[in-house]
Amino acid sequence: MDADPAPVRKAALLWALGRVSLGVTALLAPRPLLAPWLGPSVPRTTARVTGRALGGRDLVLGAGAAWMLARGGDARPWVLGCAAADTADAAATLLARRRLPATGRRLVTVVAAGSALTGAVLCLLLPRVSVSPRA
After folding, report:
1. Is 135 contained in some domain?
2. Please, what's the b/e burial string for 83-119 (b: 16 or more CB within 10 A of its CB; e: otherwise)?
């Protein structure tokens, strides 16, 4: 007998909604969010474009995962996409580590890698849904 998937789906939903919140924040106020990561000397336009691009990505990935989780559908592809994006963020940060502020570099690496690991574990624990989500 399989374990009750409700707690896993609820945890995944909260994780996805956290991504939506981060995405909205990055869309509305990209510079304060990016300054610790990329440094305070990042040009304003660069911070806005980069922050809004990442914010849009996180908003869409998080909303897609949350939608599927709330509807009872198979959210694993969305959760995997979120984890892949987090892995890319951690990798990009590590590749540029010598040119990034130490505190922001450490913070982003830990948060992104932790979120990627969380997404991977959720993907393994979420049940496969073979029926169409509720309308």
Report:
1. no
2. bebbbebbeebeeeeeebbeebbeebbebbbebbebb
Would residue 37 count as lying in a domain?
yes
Q: What is the pTM of this model?
A: 0.88
In a domain, 86, yes or no: yes
- What is the extent of the structural domain holding 42? 6-125
Our count of domains for the chain comes to: 1
- Tens-place pLDDT, residues 46-94: 999 999 999 999 999 999 999 999 999 999 999 999 999 999 999 999 9
Helices (H), 29-135: 30-38, 44-71, 76-95, 102-125
Angstrom distances, CA of residue 89 to CA of 39, 58, 108, 122: 16, 11, 8, 19
